[in-house]
Amino acid sequence: MRYKYITKGTCSQQINFNIDGDVITNIEFIGGCNGNLKAISKLVNGWTVDKIESYLLGNTCGIRSTSCADQLAKAVRAAYNETNAQ
Predict the structure, then answer these.
(1) Hey, what CATH class is 2-85 in?
(2) Structural contact between residues 5 and 14, judged by C-beta atoms closer than 8 angstroms
């Protein structure tokens, strides 16, 4: 299933990805630091929701209380919770 997440407090505006069970693939950030976000997307492609959360949740960017990586962790958890609530 393709999932779209609108980010909060970051330069990127949106994160799109596929979720199959608890595995995340085909991550795409809209906006933000293009090179860094492409690298993050490649590195975590195929990871589970739990693994992404364990590595990325809580990461900050400068003085912000969040980051694109943190938003990805929140996005995959939201997608997982939504798809498993059905």
Answers:
(1) alpha beta
(2) yes
